[in-house]
Design goal:
Number of strands: 12
Largest sheet: 7 strands, mixed
Number of domains: 2
Number of helices: 13
CATH superfamily of the largest domain: Type I PLP-dependent aspartate aminotransferase-like (Major domain)
CATH class of the largest domain: Alpha Beta
Length: 391
């Protein structure tokens, strides 16, 4: 008896990049005090008004099977939101509601990739990207971006890797780097996608967390609406990580097949969760700004702390809830630095290597603890790096 190659090789039999996080959680379980700057989990919980909407919906009876594509109400709301933000005509027929962004990523690749097809993704990447691609039986092919380019992808690199590929996955604002892809970058990517006949999967779950510049959805670029699948989620924009409510926006023909896929897999998202999501989206910008405010504030604090030293370098944190820090001046890899920081100061960060080879010598810091503790931890991290650099 053996398991499928597909499931046993999700991480190619190697690391999934979560060792420091798992070790930190184990230390906490053993009673040690650890400062966690690892995963993108808000330090504030879901807003009470959203929970009240969720409770009201559940108590009124919306606890049975919901429509598999999502409720008409939520699909209409998502469509209106996307149309308002992009200027691209969007209806409920362009929207399917999914159990979070991760399920949306899996469904999108399932729709586009046959077993053995090449699916492209950019490095650094969110840790689940290559495993998601392998999970649908496709061949995950990474395209390395460069710290010297501030991790903006080069169209020439994408073009050079595109031979035989069917899809490209991008993420802006980007996790882990915090980079927001420029209009020039996205236009060049769109040109390659059209010339190479690539589907584009655009992970836009951080679209409400933009600190510099402007978020641009590639679906809004000329000729791209018919070949772009946009992944969205309530997790980051509304601190609803545990509610598992996301979506895909795509051409109608793609959505039709995704509905068929959902019928045979997830069978939809609970109705009371969808009603809560609809309420949250209906509140509009004020609630989204409230959820984003702590990260905007902590980014400003981080810039002040990092400006006071010369060892740790900040990759421009233009969006998302993370800082990507270059610690190569210490002479250590991200893995070694993160483990040493955990051992020495009980501060847990993610090694850059968790997110691909392009982020080697970096660490990712989540801005997910209260301001005072965040500043103290970042100062300690910088002092530790200075000691290593001197030594």
């Amino acid at each position: 008896m053996k398991l499928s190659h597909r499931i046993t090789h999700l991480t190619e039999g190697g690391s999934d990049g979560w060792e420091v996080f798992i070790r930190a959680r184990r230390m906490i379980a053993e009673g040690h005090a650890v400062t966690e700057l690892t995963i993108g989990e808000h330090d504030i919980r879901t807003d009470q008004s959203i929970l009240s909407a969720m409770e009201s919906s559940a108590r009124s009876g919306h606890t049975g099977y919901a429509m598999v594509p999502g409720t008409d109400l939520l699909r209409d709301t998502v469509a209106a939101r996307v149309q308002m933000r992009t200027g691209v005509a969007t209806t409920r027929n362009n929207v399917i509601i999914t159990p979070g962004g991760q399920a949306a990523l899996f469904a999108a690749h399932t729709a586009l990739c046959d077993p053995g097809d090449i699916a492209l993704y950019l490095d650094p990447y969110y840790a689940t990207y290559p495993g998601t691609i392998r999970g649908v039986g496709a061949v995950a092919k990474r395209i390395e971006t460069r710290a010297g380019d501030l991790f903006q992808p080069r169209a020439s690199d994408i073009d050079g890797a595109a031979g035989g590929a069917v899809s490209l996955l991008i993420n802006s604002p980007n996790n882990p780097t915090g980079v927001v892809y420029s209009a020039e970058t996205l236009s060049a990517i769109a040109e390659v996608c059209q010339r190479r006949d690539l589907w584009l999967i655009s992970d836009e779950v951080y679209d409400t967390q933009v600190w510099e510049g402007e978020h641009l959805s590639p679906r809004a670029l000329p000729g791209m609406a018919e070949r772009t699948l946009v992944v969205g989620s309530m997790s980051k924009s509304h601190a609803m990580t545990g509610s598992r409510c996301g979506w895909i926006v795509a051409p109608e023909g793609v959505i039709d097949h995704l509905i068929n896929l959902a019928t045979h897999t997830t069978y939809g998202v609970p109705g009371f969760i969808q009603d809560a999501a609809n309420y949250a989206l209906s509140v509009g910008q004020p609630l989204e700004d409230k959820i984003a405010a702590p990260f905007r504030r902590r980014r400003a604090l981080a810039i002040e702390v990092l400006a006071a030293q010369q060892v740790v370098t900040l990759i421009p944190a233009q969006g998302a809830m993370y800082l990507m820090l270059d610690i190569r001046a210490t002479g250590l890899s991200g893995d070694v630095f993160a483990n040493a920081l955990l051992d020495t100061h009980a501060i847990a960060v993610m090694p850059g290597e968790s997110f691909g080879a392009a982020a080697a010598g970096h660490i990712r810091v989540a801005m997910t603890i209260d301001d005072e503790k965040f500043v103290t931890s970042l100062q300690t991290l910088c002092e530790f790096a200075a000691q290593l650099a001197e030594g």
